[in-house]
Amino acid sequence: MTTRASPSEIAIQAAGAERMGFFTDTTVCIGCKACEVACKQWNDLPADGATFDKGGSYDHTGSLSASTWRHVRFIEIAEATPQAREDAARRLEAGDGGRVPDIPAAWGGARGGGDTPNGGATGDLDLVALASERSEAVDVAAAVAAMDDWIFMSDVCKHCTNAGCLDACPTGALIRTEFETVVLQADVCNGCGYCIPACPFGVVARDPDDGRAAKCTLCYDRLQDGLEPACAKSCPTDSIQFGPYDELVGLAARRVGMLHSRGMRDAYLYGAGDDPDQQLAGGLGAFFLLTRPPERYGLPAHADSPVQENLVPATIAAYGAALLAAAGAAAAFLAATRRPPGRVTSGARARRRAIRSWRR
Amino acid sequence: MPGLGASFGRGGATDFLQALQHADCILIEGSSMAEAHPVGFRWVMKAKERGAKIIHVDPRFGRTSQLADLHVPIRAGTDIAFLGGLIRHVIETEAYFREYVVAYTNASTILRDDFEDTEDLGGVFSGFDPDTARYDQTTWGYAEGAPRDDTLQHPRCVFAVLRRHFARYTPEMVQRVCGISPQDFQEVADALVHNSGRERTTTLCYAVGWTQHTAGVQVIRAGSILQLLLGNIGRPGGGIMALRGHASIQGSTDIPTLFDILPGYISMPHACEGGLSLRDHIDAHGKQRGWWSHFDTYLVSLLKAWFGDAATADNDFGFGHLPKLTGTHAHFSTMLRAIDGGVDGLFVMGQNPAVGSQHAGLQRRALASLKWLVVRDLAEIETATFWKDGPEIESGELRTQDIATEVFLMPAAAHVEKEGTFTNTQRLLQWRDKALEPPGDARSELWFMHHLAKRVRAHYAASANERDWPIRNLTWDYPEHGDTREPDAEAVAREINGYDVMSGAPLPDFTALRNDGSTACGCWIYSGYFKDGVNQARRREPGDLSAPGGWVSPEWGWAWPLNRRILYNRASADPEGRPWSERKRYVWWDEQQSRWTGYDVPDFPVDKRPGYEAPRDALAMDAISGDDPFIMMPDGRGRLFAPAGLVDGPLPTHYEPFESPVDNLIHPDFHMNPGAMKWQRPENPYHATGDPRYPIVVTTFRLTEHHTAGAMSRNLPWLAELQPEMFAELDPALAADRGIEDGGWMVVETARGEIEARAKVTPRIRPLKIDGRVVHQICLPWHWGFTGEVRGDITNDLGALSGEPNVGIQESKAFSCNVRAGRRTRPSTARLAGARLDRPVRPDEDDPPAEYESEIT
User: Which residues on B lie below 8 Å from A128 (Cβ)?
Assistant: First the structure.
């Protein structure tokens, strides 16, 4: 299998190694957080500290961090999916009386039927009547059904094909392994933090006490011994699947097809199987099966490595500007001294030279 | 457990978790299986992938509900009304599996003339004594000779009585009582009916959401009746999956830590005037027919295991020396006795009643009344620190310097630091080897009890007192090994399995037990797990999963009894011994070999022909015919009507929880289960029905991230950070009315106490329309206490003591409360501080002592 690593990456090559990845299927996740804990246990990561997140549903971890490399998101939905809207529209056409539900996501400040002060004896509100009051076009049954949706998603480093963190790293701490995963070598990291804004997914972070950055290694140490990552092993429903990347993509595509045939038409793959010009960061080594727009999960709809996004135009511009400047200088020089122009060196080529010399 | 026992013959899950993958429909009720049994839930997911319909009936939309195809919100404590509605539907639409019902249940058996149903007596059965609130069960029996009418037409046959009993549980009544819409009811009914019968099977999964009620045992009975009518018991992907409350609790009832049973569910003897002989006890509890007819062999072999050579036929094998019951010695009764000054000391091992038991404040006050207390645990739990910490110390009701209890905190080994078996929810024994040595002085339970008993025996070795006979004569010669002198767990296991007294050879199974003292066996239902001297529980062989029936994996661990994975599996074949369908083939009669065979160990005498008809006067197993799958029952049939075994009725009846804002709409004259245990004491005030001060229904639930009372999870930072604070889930309308903000503070209060919690305002909790008026429910996790990495108020401070009449289990899954915004202004149990009449009263300046309601209407 050909490597997809960009030529400017520090990459380990090993005969027989193939690209490995994660396929996280959110439709079978039960939100148990075994992955989050198994990862911490295997990697001996510290707890981040227990703080109650007010708006966080059952998620008090908040986000991936230097000491949380698997993070389960919980999102409570109170709006209709496109499919629910379609179904409602179809029912309306069929004369079932359904209308597109329109319950706002936030309930704050709602009062109705019997304005009683705190703790009144009959301070019961008729939610059914309240819902009807808010909009005469509300189909209560559908609205209530649409409220029953709770998303669980185990977030992780995406191990991107175009890895922003890796491209931004000036020290070579971030490297591409023989499994085409992205690994951060703690003993090389100088804590500069360049990788952090370069990640479009907000994965990598710095440990505030330690100073160095850290993130998921796709259990590189376990892979080298032929074992699966700790999170995949602990997942009771196989929501997290691990294996050779191409196999996973095929499996995931079949899963999407099966869900579509069962009526779950909102299911799609995030980070795999896209057309080349639609890919996220060139394709994600850890990709997902989602059923809502990505923003619902806190994921960007578009993403790429900032360096690579800007690299080609920046290089062209740099070359162009340099050539122009050189030509201008040459012309001026010629005009002044009739000496031959010197050799120009672009930034990118200089970097590659430096890297090659480091690797020797 | 007794619910299953009274229906089928054994108190244990009838199926195993892996079998769930072959269910066509799974109804999960009284359980949030994905949250409390996440690993077992993988089998539900496998079923779902094969197209099974998953239904979750629960007051709360939890993580399980998200994965279900249908979530039906229900008012906590009304499961019998809902199940009764389903039973009625199945009967009235003739959707029951008729051949199964006629052949395998007692539907056709005719009852005595003098039996009267709750429909006749307005809410109780015949034989009810209103003064004692107890039943004389004589009238609940079969007519003389147990005649049958296989046409099910006879007005006094069980089927007709059942039909009449549930006639008023219509969908409209279900809506009024439970808050379930007729559409949801219909969808559940259709799913169950469509997925039962010859070709398809449905499994019922339940947990403590069903059992922790004052009518809990009857809820299980209702589920059992439904599954018998649908013909799902004994079938692959069918049955009743009782999801036990925590690891190895099945084992702790099999080899019991319960006061009223001996190992293998043998009844504990009661004290009586003139003494009780072994013969008396056997006659009282043995049965003439079925496997309980060999009761004497089980009990005698147990006594031989305990007393060895000292147990002979001459001294009733030492039976007279067993402790006898003088009443109920259950947890609540014992703690109340402690408060009243009748208990000197207590061992608390692997339990945390200061947090985990109902009316936790009363539990802590009881601990303060002891002379000594031994706590064995992994951490310094609340039960060990009540004397210096907690709401009663905070309020001044208890003062450290006044508490005379001497507390010993003994460190316990964790589960990877000791060897032995876990018996999990499906009766499966799995042996675990020790992975590492426990740190410091931490020791296993086995070590502790072994060495404690050795010292006690040494203490009484020279005693001539007859009372000390059982201690002196206990067989206690387990080999010890290692620096810590750990007793050999396998030696204990061999004793549990049973051995021939003369030769010491392990017994193959309980059919080898004898009543003459030639065999010894620590627990007859476990006999066979050391068959041939091989530790069968250690096996981890999945086998060929792709072979027909390979999914049963009979060589993974060992299940009781006799490694049967699905109980009553004779019922997976028709009366002639052929599978009901090819799709649901499991166990069948092989004519050529003249034996039962299949994917599992047949739960039936292996060479009894399907056509064998038991003679009228046959005894023991000869009385079981070839088409009687329920071999523990005298008539070999599953019981729709339970003539014996339960003290509160032969049929389930809807009663309200002991505290409810709603009247009993089905039987207005009997609000709650008449036989339920109540403790009318100043420390234990109840709310009256419909008390306007407590209009909100409260139920409790578990989080995946924490484990029970929190000792094992709140002390572990990786788990503590996942759920750091106590919270309460409530619906947006109630929150809006009370001014409670999502993430803000709120107080939940009852007559027992008040706790503060962070508010989770969510549409996952829905108010319900009960008999035309809106009733709100709140849902509380109960994992927090006052010690540990993360701390919080104790949910169990809210509940009152209450008990189900058969087993005494508390009603923690439905009671009433009120809520308000803000934080607690005083310690959680301060309002009961004045209830302790003989202790110094610390008047609370902010609040005079409330008047306590101590009656239930």
Answer: 769, 774
Token pair for B125: 């059965």
- CA-wise closest residue to B383 among B400, B401, B365: B365
Is the pLDDT at B855 greater than 70? The verdict is no
How far apart, in whole angstroms, are the C-alpha atoms of residue A5 and residue A13?
Answer: 11
Tokens of A238: 């196989």
Give the pair of three-digit tokens for residue B92. Answer: 């009235």
Q: How far apart are the first and last CA of chain A?
A: 25
Q: Which amino acid is at B373?
A: L
Tell me the C-alpha distance between B590 and B593, whole Å. Answer: 6
Burial class (CB in 10 A: 0-12, 13-18, 19+), B583: middle
Q: What's the rounded mean pLDDT across residues A335-353?
A: 55
Does residue B638 contact residue B228 with C-beta atoms inside 8 Å? yes
Q: Which residues contact B688 (CB under 8 A, 6 or more apart)?
A: B853, B855, B856, B857
CB-CB under 8 Å, B718 with A40: yes
Q: How far apart are CA B744 and CA B821, in angstroms?
A: 8
Structure tokens at B293: 């007819």
pLDDT average, residue stretch B567-585? 97
> Is A204 in a helix, a strand, or coil?
coil
Contact yes or no for A41/A230 (Cβ under 8 A): yes
pLDDT at B835 over 90: no
Give how far B733 is from chain A: nearest CA, Å.
Answer: 6
A243 in helix, strand or coil?
strand
What token pair was written down for B612? 């064998």
Yes or no, beta carbons of B766 and A127 under 8 Å apart: yes
Distance CA A50, CA A62 (A): 11
- The pTM assigned to this predicted structure is 0.89
The predicted complex's ipTM stands at: 0.90
Q: What angle do CA B254, B328, B473 make, to 5 degrees?
A: 60
- Can you tell me the distance from the alpha carbon of B833 to that of B835, in angstroms, rounded to the nearest whole number? 6
Which pair of tokens denotes residue A276? 């080349």
Token pair listed for B248: 């190895």
Q: Is residue A184 helix, strand or coil?
A: strand
Q: How many CA atoms, within 13 angstroms, populate the side-chain half-sphere of residue B596?
A: 31
Q: Which residues contact B1 (CB under 8 A, 6 or more apart)?
A: B11, B12, B242, B253, B807
pLDDT digit string, tens, across residues B688-710: 999 999 999 999 999 999 999 99
Tokens linked to B356: 């985990």
Q: Which letter does DSSP use for residue A229 in this model? A: P
Are B763 and A147 in contact (CB < 8 Å)?
Answer: yes
pLDDT digit string (tens) for B317-343? 999 999 999 988 999 999 999 999 999
Burial B246-260 (b: 16+ CB within 10 A, else e): eebebbebbbbebee
Alpha-carbon torsion, ordered A153, A155, A161, A166, to 10 deg: 170
| Contact at CB, A110 and B775, closer than 8 angstroms | no
Whether residue B561 is preceded by a cis peptide bond, meaning omega within 30 degrees of 0, is yes
Mutation choice for B interface testing from A63, A122, A125 by most B CBs within 10 A: A125
H or E, element range at A127 = helix A127-134
In chain B, what residues touch A60 (CB-CB under 8 Å)?
721-724
A127–B717 CB contact, under 8 Å? no
Q: CA-to-CA distance for B297 and B512, rounded, in angstroms? A: 9
